[in-house]
Write a structure and sequence with these properties.
globular, alpha+beta
Length: 68
């Protein structure tokens, strides 16, 4: 498990993955996606990655099964 990709549980049960921009660039987004999927998340559950220029973090939301 790559510690650069952090799992964050938000209030209300929402889950997302966060990674620093520099780490994402070093790993490549394909490797980030593979790391997320290795933790049991299917590609269909992943939302669109969002970049924050203020925090310099990529956030990848995870949809719940019931959201489909």
């Amino acid at each position: 498990m790559d510690e650069r990709v952090r799992l964050v549980k938000k209030p209300g049960g929402a889950v997302e993955f966060r990674i620093k921009a520099a780490d994402a660039e070093a790993m490549g987004m394909e490797a980030v996606a593979a790391e997320v999927q290795s933790r049991g998340v299917t590609p269909e559950q992943l939302g669109e990655p969002v970049f924050s220029k203020y925090t310099r973090l990529w956030t990848i939301p995870v949809r719940k099964e019931s959201d489909e």
